[in-house]
Amino acid sequence: MEMKNDLETTNNKPFFDQEQIRILKDSCNMKDATDAEFAIFGHICKRSGLDPFARQIYSIKRGNRRTIQTGIDGFRLIAERSGNYAGSTKISYFDSEGLPFKEDSNRPPAKAEITIQKIVGGHVCNFTAEARWSEYNPGNNSIWKKMPATMLGKCAESLALRKAFPADLSGLYTQEEMAQAGGDDGEHPRIANTIKAIQEIKNKPKPFNNDNYILSVKRFCYMMSDRGVPNPVHIILGYFKLNIADDATNRDTLLTLNDELKIKIKDWVDKQTKE
């Protein structure tokens, strides 16, 4: 079946036909996309006029969310098509002190700033935005290491263009902006490390609560004493095959056991108390 080259734009039918959906699933990283995600992607393709089959726009899955993104050239094209784009200023770069950035320094710029000019009601209006290195640096990324100022400048321009053309660009992000979110199938290294640390904390065994252990043993002994059973502690020691001696020694035995055995004893006496 030959794929249609033209994208559906009528309101009474889906934006993509079944053949186009199949190709997007097979070739454009949308294999597990839901019908709703295809509908949203189609709506933004229609609104922006960008063609996913020409690789002008993408739907990228990160974690459990899909982000629709394009390159900075896609943003510029959308702005140009509006008929109201009046150009931009040169990108300005600053260091961490707010001073003009010196390119001969061994550090990347701390901030990039640009102003987009748009014709509104016959007047040229300015829309300024800034991007900070601390917010957009993706970490271990070869392109960002090689061209830090260029990449940060693209982020600033993306922000300013979206600010100037919200009706056209809301919900759409550039690849440069999303680099900090990681690859198509993973998270940014800092995010991944944070998730790993949280998971390790969750999986780490909770410290043994000795007070709860003693309370459970006491509760069991009180219950057995009320039933007329002499030396309830002997029952615990006998069940777990521990030496039985005088009362003081038996008490010390129960208190000096390792945590693993204390947990078993607590679980057992709690079960007996409930029964």
Short description:
The radius of gyration is 32 Å and the shape is elongated.
Architecture overview:
The protein has 275 residues and is α+β, with helices and mostly antiparallel strands. Among the domains are: 71-167, no CATH class; 210-274, no CATH class. The protein is 48% helix and 15% strand. The chain has helices at residues 18-27, 35-48, 72-81, 133-136, 142-146, 148-164, 166-169, 175-178, 189-203, 210-226, 232-239, 247-255, 259-274, and strands spanning 58-62, 65-70, 85-88, 92-94, 111-120, 123-132, 173-174. The strands form 2 sheets. Strands 3, 4, 5 and 6 form a 4-stranded antiparallel β-sheet that branches. Strand 5 and strand 6 form a beta hairpin. Helix 3 (72-81) packs parallel to helix 6 and helix 10 packs parallel to helix 13. The longest helix has 17 residues, at 148-164. It starts with 17 loop residues before the first helix and ends with a helix.
Order of helices and strands: HHEEHEEEEHHHHEHHHHHH
Average pLDDT reading: 83
Binned, the helix content reads 40-55%
Structural class: alpha+beta
Assign an overall shape: elongated
Secondary structure tally, helices = 13
List unreliable stretches of 5+ residues. Answer: 1-11, 183-192
Name the beta content range. 5-15%
Question: How would a textbook summarize the main sheet?
Answer: 4 strands, antiparallel
Oligomer: single chain
Q: How many whole angstroms does the radius of gyration measure? A: 32 Å
Our measurement of the CA-to-CA distance between the termini, rounded to an integer number of angstroms, reads: 70 Å
Can you count the beta strands?
Answer: 7
